[in-house]
Structures are given as structure tokens and as C-alpha cells.
Amino acid sequence: MPVRFTLVLLLPMLAACNSLNLKQVTEALGGTGTLSEAEITAGLKEALATGTERAVTRIGRTDGFWRNPALRIPLPEKLRKAESALRQLGQGDKVDAFHLSLNRAAEQAVPEAAAIFGAAIRDMTLSDARGILRGPDDAATVYFRDKTSTALSAKFRPRVAQATDAVGVTRRYKEMLGKLGTLLPGADLSAQDIDAYVTDRALAALFTTLAEEEKRIREEPLARTTELLRRVFGGERG
Predict the structure, then answer these.
(1) What is the pTM of this model?
(2) Which of 27, 76, 182, 237 has CA atoms 20 to 30 A from the CA of 197?
(3) Rounded Cα distance, 238 and 205, in Å
């Protein structure tokens, strides 16, 4: 039966080793050297499933974007530059509601990533696994970005559009641009594709979060997983 281990068990050793081959992986884990490439790949897949689930859960919920200053989607540039003027026009409440709605749309779209990440993990080849094991600290994140970005964008956009349509985001945006036009004649106030804007920002935030999860799990469990690693790879099944 393939040895199964979670991201907490597999990835920490990468923080302490460079350019690992699969034999070194086994030795670094304190094992007997009997693990096959297939077993290590199976463990890596389970590890990545854990990491992606954590990333999706962190931001694919209410306030996952809105309450996180690092990920909060800002107002589109045209509104951001004229925000003070809009507030002077008595549009502050609408600006705030519009801003919140952008982030709520992203929060609702992110859970769509779970199935796409799952498919990328199932389709992972032995060559892919070797690349992640031997790669830099963000190797898994790079793998997912390369394999899933197109599918994620196609899946996110309809979900974002559904969320923005429900609260009239585009209509509200155009109304605010119209009011700005009375103050800024001649300015370029052509409407932006809000759904594309939110989708792009949501994807960027998702991969940023995934990279953070990968880094955190590589580094933090080092001091407290030695016993677990010994049990899994040293023949102690507990």
C-alpha cells in the first residue's frame, strides 16, 4: 500500500535541502530508503491537495478578501483617482457599497478553484512530481499557475458575473462614471470590464495565498514533525 502523508509531513524537508533527488528525499525524511517514486508521488499528491484546500478555504469565504488588506481588491483606477470627488458629490455610500461588492464577488468565485486544483493533482505525472520536489520554494505554486490559470479564469468569470449582476455592480459603476463626467469633462471615463477586473484580481490573490501556504508549511512544522516523519518512514506505524 502506498505510504500516504500530508503536506505537513512532506514539504518541510524541502526547506532544508537544495536540488533534491528522490533518494535524498527519502534519506532526509529519516526513512529506510525503500520508498518508491510512485509512493513519494502519491504522498506529494495528497500533500498538494491539503495545501490547495487550505488556500481556497482561507479566501473563498465571507471577508476572505475584504478583511485582508493584502488581498482586498481596490477600486478600479478611474474611480480610485476620483474617489474624493465622488464623496464630495454625496456618493460615498455608493462607492463603499461598490467596493465591497467587488470583493464579495471574488470571495464567491474562489471556491470554484477546488475542483480545478483537484484535476491538476490527479493529472500530475511523475515528471511533474520530480520538478516540484527538486524545485524552488514556490515550485508547487508555479505548477498550479501553469496548469490551471486558463481553466480558473474560465470558471471564475461566470461566477463573478453572476455575483456582480445580482447587485448591479456594472450599472452602479457606470452611474458613478457619469457623475464624474460632470466634474471632469474631457477625461477618459470609458467603462472598464468589471468582471474581467475582479477575475484577474481574484486569481492573483489565489496564487499569492497558495504561495504563502506552501512557504508556511515548508518552514513552520520542521521542529515538531520529526517524530511523525520517523513513524511514517522509519517503519513505526504507531
Answers:
(1) 0.76
(2) 182
(3) 40
Q: How far apart are CA 87 and CA 68, in angstroms?
A: 24
Count of C-beta atoms within a 10 Å radius of residue 86: 20
What is the chain's Cα-based Rg? 23
The span from the CA of 148 to the CA of 116, in Å, is 7
Can you give the pLDDT of all 238 residues of the chain as single tens digits? 343 333 334 444 333 333 334 444 444 444 445 556 776 677 677 778 888 998 999 999 999 999 999 999 999 887 887 888 888 888 888 889 989 999 999 999 999 999 999 999 999 988 898 888 778 888 999 999 999 999 999 999 999 999 988 878 878 887 777 777 666 555 555 667 889 999 999 999 999 999 988 777 666 544 223 343 333 223 333 4
